[in-house]
Every structure is written in C-alpha cells, then in structure tokens.
Amino acid sequence: GVGYRAAVQNNEIILNLGYSHPVNIKIPNIISVEVVQNTTINLKSCDKELLGLFAANIRAWRQPEPYKGKGILYKGEQIIRKAGKSAK
Question: What positions belong to coiled-coil segments (predicted)?
Fold first, then answer.
C-alpha cells in the first residue's frame, strides 16, 4: 500500500502520512468527513469554497510528486510522471 492512513476522531481528521507524528486537522462544522477505507476520504458540504479550501489544506501535507507518483490525490486525478536521472 501507500503507507498513508486516515481516521476521523471527535471533530478532527487524523492523517498518518509517513511523518514521525500524526497530522491532526480540525474539521469545520459545515463539512462532513467520511473515511471509506483507510486510504479514501469523502468530503461533503453545501459550501463549495470552504470544501475546496479544506481539501487543499489536507492535500498540502503530501502533494503528489512526479517521480514516484505518491501523495494525496483528488479522485480521478492523473499524475504526469517524470523520468528519473538517467544512468551513464
């Protein structure tokens, strides 16, 4: 697997993203968060702007990187992969 985990506890989302500590993000009252699997998060809200900001805040902790293709992705997002260093 990816090695990233998510869980909802009280009014916080707890993300284990490979750091030495879990990342706790407070969930706004308008947004409902549902963790489907350990690696899939569903966000729902009537305020589209706040929802986008919250999703971007979560994603900012591990942005997708083009070499390994790891990171937090939106559903259906494709990462354009880059070639690594070429050996001589």
Answer: none
